[in-house]
Amino acid sequence: MARLEQRTDYTTEIPPLNTQLKYWNDRWRDNSSPNSLQRRQGDVILEYINKRSLHEVNILDIGCGTGWLDSELSKFGIVQGLDLSGKAIEIAKLNNPGVKFEEIDFFEADLQNNSFDLIVAQEVIAHVYDQELFVEKVSKLLKPRGLLVVTTANKFVIDRLDLGTEPLGHIKKWLSLNEIVKLFSSNFKEIAKTTVLPMGHAGILRLVNSYKLTKCFSLFIGNDEVAKIKEKFGLGYTRIFLFRKRE
Q1: Is the pLDDT of residue 219 over 90?
Q2: Which CATH architecture fits 4-198+236-245?
Q3: pLDDT tens-digit series, residues 229-247
Q4: Which of 44, 67, 154, 221 is the S-S candidate for 225 at Cβ 3.0 to 4.6 Å?
Q5: For the whole prediction, is pTM greater than 0.90?
Q6: CA distances from 205 to 89, 157, 172 (A)
């Protein structure tokens, strides 16, 4: 019987690479299409990019998964996708024949510095063994004043959730808002940030997300507005950042 761990645990030891690969291959095999959370954060990412009026730019999608966002990113320029999972890349190639995908560890990827105008890293920073090295490499790959989109689970919410168990192999190094700011501030300037999909049922979130309180406010301003207010105040499951590389 496979060993399991809590989905919201923190990794204390780096899993062997073969264990990581099995985890991600199995995960993408069972989840080849984007779920509601991914679609919601994808909409926000595209909104951020649209506001910057990008055209014919070079784009790198780190941890591209099944490439579900890359068909949209391709509207802004040439996209290259990287992922550790061979299964994810197999699906990505089928869905996006015009995009170059590579099965590789980002830290091992041979990419030219100062060659990308935009880098997207969805749900990556909390799942790499060396977060400082990740930020340094991303910074080197971006052109001067290049843009970086980062999404990651909201530690404030993660600490107040029980999402059940999952197989071993998932590096989990959740970051607080202050830790994220500190990690990126030397190389990047924050342009925008938000959270999406409010949830959580422990501590203060037990009250904030209670059915009765949410229902009460929804009667006056509607469910969508209630969700937007919670997202604005940092109570969504996922944080989304738009950074610009410092000159």
Answers
A1: no
A2: 3-Layer(aba) Sandwich (3.40)
A3: 999 999 999 999 999 999 8
A4: 221
A5: yes
A6: 37, 8, 22
